[in-house]
Automatic annotation (TrEMBL):
InterPro entries: Chromosome_initiator_DnaA-like, DnaA_dom, Hda, Hda_lid, P-loop_NTPase. It comes from Microbulbifer celer. This is DnaA regulatory inactivator Hda. The keyword Transport does not apply. Pfam families: Bac_DnaA, Hda_lid. Belongs to the DnaA family. The keyword NAD does not apply. It comes from the Bacteria. Transmembrane segments: none annotated. Residues 180-244 form the Hda lid domain. Keywords: DNA replication. SUPFAM superfamilies: P-loop containing nucleoside triphosphate hydrolases. Residues 25-173 form the Chromosomal replication initiator protein DnaA ATPAse domain.
Length: 246
């Protein structure tokens, strides 16, 4: 089966407990790394962390939307699963109306917990308190915690000073956003991984007319791939105009 034959499965979510899912295409192989950015060291460390080879107790990733924080957190979970480790991925943006104590109960028995969208706990005393206690339970039981957010630990508006101090103890990395040249290369790399070649002029057209963050750009690429398969047409600029209305 070729990559393109199998690509239809790439967007199918993998079900996890608590109704949370991982995207199959959120992998380290799909994460674009420019030779000039500072993300390569982070990716290598996270791969070791995910498999359990690196015993670091807490890692904190932060970066602006589209920088790849969520992608890397889910990539870590994919590797952890293949390594036979127990884990849970929790995007707080999907759980703000839930009872935090109920959601976080028992997670300290897992090998790895990945908390995404931590900034959503700002101005929410319930979530801050529950996350503080989870942090302590994971530390006491020798488990690992990976945190993702749009802000650094110092930049978070947290009323619970104890939680802020715990997060400041973590190994902290900022993910650097891609330049336009990197986004162009990332689009073309992602298309090849999906089993087709995106011409440079088409990639340029998408980059300058679609939303600029990488998550939105990759969503456009997926939409185009699905449409081209259904229509049995190559992805050209006229086809992009027709499908994306840009």
């Amino acid at each position: 089966m070729t990559a393109r034959d199998n690509k239809g499965q790439s967007g199918v979510p993998q079900q996890l407990p608590l109704g949370v899912s991982l995207r199959d295409d959120a992998t380290f192989a799909n994460f674009f790394q420019s030779p000039d950015d500072g993300n390569r060291q982070v990716v290598g460390l996270l791969q070791e962390f995910a498999s359990g080879e690196n015993p670091e107790p807490v890692i904190y990733l932060w970066g602006e939307p589209g920088s790849g924080v969520t992608h890397l957190l889910q990539s870590v979970c994919q590797v952890a699963e293949r390594a036979g480790r127990s884990f849970q991925y929790l995007p707080l943006g999907d759980m703000e109306d839930s009872d935090p104590e109920m959601i976080l109960e028992g997670l300290d028995h897992l090998d790895l917990v990945c908390i995404d969208d931590l900034e959503r706990a700002e101005n929410d005393a319930r979530w801050q308190t529950a996350l503080f206690h989870l942090y302590n339970r994971l530390k006491d039981s020798g488990r690992q915690l990976l945190v993702g957010a749009r802000k650094s630990p110092n930049g978070l508006d947290l009323q619970l000073a104890d939680l802020r101090s715990r997060l400041q103890w973590a190994l902290v990395f900022q993910l650097h956003p891609l330049s336009d040249a990197d986004k162009l290369a990332a689009l073309r790399q992602r298309s090849r991984l999906r089993g087709f070649d995106l011409p440079e002029d088409v990639a340029q057209y998408i980059l300058h007319r679609a939303p600029r963050d990488t998550r939105a750009l990759f969503a456009c690429l997926e939409q185009l791939d699905q449409a081209s398969l259904q229509a049995q047409r190559k992805i050209t600029i006229p086809f992009v105009k027709q499908v994306l209305h840009i």
